Amino acid sequence: VNAVRDAMGLEPLPIARVASYIGQGVQMLIRRALGEAASDGEIERAVSLFLEYYRDHMLDHTVPYPGVRAALDELRHKKLAVLTNKPVVFSRHLLAGLDLARYFAFVYGGNSFDQKKPDPVGVHKLMRDMSAASEATLIVGDSDTDVLTGRNAGVWTCGVTYGIGSATLEASPPDLLLQDMRELPPLLNGRRETKVRPQRDQA
């Protein structure tokens, strides 16, 4: 984002502020980063600059959060998929570059459907792809966007406290909240009891 702002003659933004803009796709990220005064033409140019820069640098400093690789390995016999608002081609490139692609049967991005999360269209498509019932489906994410997506789709929701959008989970609490992804496999594999129940009244 700051590389784009620099190319457009703007001062850099604090990293924390940029992080707060993430979660609803590139278009919204750039619109927020440029501010209300930006014209549609400026936003279009900035999105193009962003996508070009991101394609070349997305793996420069990107690593899985601690415990994620171990958790995925334990869950490798489950039906797993990725649903993100990031452009799908970048999502697949990231997963391949981090050696995580092998865990996921399907990967859908922000341009895979007409609507992005929190619209439930992506979750509904994944449930059809995997022949999965709503009561056997769990969406895991770090933000209110993920929780709202799950609620809109009528599935279980799991939040993680360490992600970029984790502060937003306070306003939209998930059915299950984890400090570490390694806590999840025992729950899904039936090795640990949990009294968590879905908050369907908030859907």
What's this, in brief?
The chain is mostly helical.
Structure description:
- The protein is mostly helical and 203 residues long.
- Helix content is 40%, strand content 9%.
- It has a three-stranded parallel beta sheet with strand order 3-4-5, covered by helices on one side.
- α6 links the parallel β1 and β2.
- α3 packs across α4.
- It is globular, with a radius of gyration of 18 Å.
- 27% of the residues are buried.
- The C terminus is likely disordered.
Task: Assign a percent range to the helix content.
Answer: 25-40%
Enumerate the spans where pLDDT stays under 50 for 5 or more consecutive residues. 193-203
Describe the sheet with the most strands: 3 strands, parallel
| DSSP helical segment count | 9
Distance between the termini: 33 Å
Radius of gyration: 18 Å
- What general form does the structure show? globular
Mean pLDDT level: 92
What attributes does this structure have?
two-stranded parallel ribbon; three-stranded parallel sheet; 5 strands; globular; disordered C terminus; mainly alpha; 203 residues
